[in-house]
Amino acid sequence: MTVQPLPSASASASVLDPFKLEIIRILNIPVHLAGSADVSLQVAYQKYKAFLVASHTLDNMLGNGTWLIKRPTRTDLIEVFVSKSFFHSHYRRYFTQVADYPKMMAWLEGQSESEDVEVWGVKKVAYTFSDLNIWLENGGKWKLDNEGEESEKVVKRGKGKGKGKELEKRKEREREREKEKKDKGHKKKESSRRAK
Question: What's the pTM value of the predicted model, to 2 decimals?
Answer without folding.
Answer: 0.67
